[in-house]
Amino acid sequence: MMPPIGVKANVQSASRARLTWTDNTLGRSQRVHDSRYYVVRYNPKLARKQRFVNSTRLAVELFDLRPDTEYEFSVKVIKGQRRSTWSLSVFNRTLEAGSLFEYIMLIFIHSFIATRKCCVVISQLPNKFYGHFAILLEYVISLIR
Q: Distance between CA 12 and CA 60 in Å, rounded?
């Protein structure tokens, strides 16, 4: 079997990436109608431990990546007893961990009517994938009129 081609790794955040690829043996429709599945191999560049995930589609979402780390991705197809070689590897780096978009989990708004002050506290919840990489702990923004 021929390996998948055109593997693309689109990094979406500090811990997520979406992989897509093309399977030339499917023809123009690029729809899987048989028992084939794809094995995605990914690991930080130069790391020994590799991770694998199976997919019956031509795309997969990975949610357990480390922030600010360059990853190597490749895909192979398996159909019954037949299997392809690994596709050409693609590399991409996850975003840094300090992104507000990634970490704003809770927003508390407190109004102090008597003093006409408003205080907004933006906090993050701990994330099991980031460990000590979580930089943003808390911002306190006060508006005094």
A: 13
Q: What is the CATH number of the domain that holds 15?
A: 2.60.40.10
Split into its structural domains, the chain has a count of 2
Tell me the residue range of the domain where 43 lies. Answer: 5-93
Residue type, 8: K
Q: What is the residue-averaged pLDDT of the chain?
A: 78
- Cα distances (Å, whole numbers) of residue 44 to 48, 58, 68: 9, 22, 10
Q: How far is CA 109 from CA 7, 84, 112, in A?
A: 44, 55, 10
* Longest CA–CA separation in the chain, Å: 74
What does the pLDDT look like over 81-139, one tens digit per residue?
A: 999 999 999 999 998 876 444 444 444 444 444 455 555 555 555 554 444 444 555 55
Residues 129 and 66 sit within 8 Å (Cβ to Cβ):
yes
HSE of 121 in the Cβ direction (CA atoms, 13 Å)?
A: 8
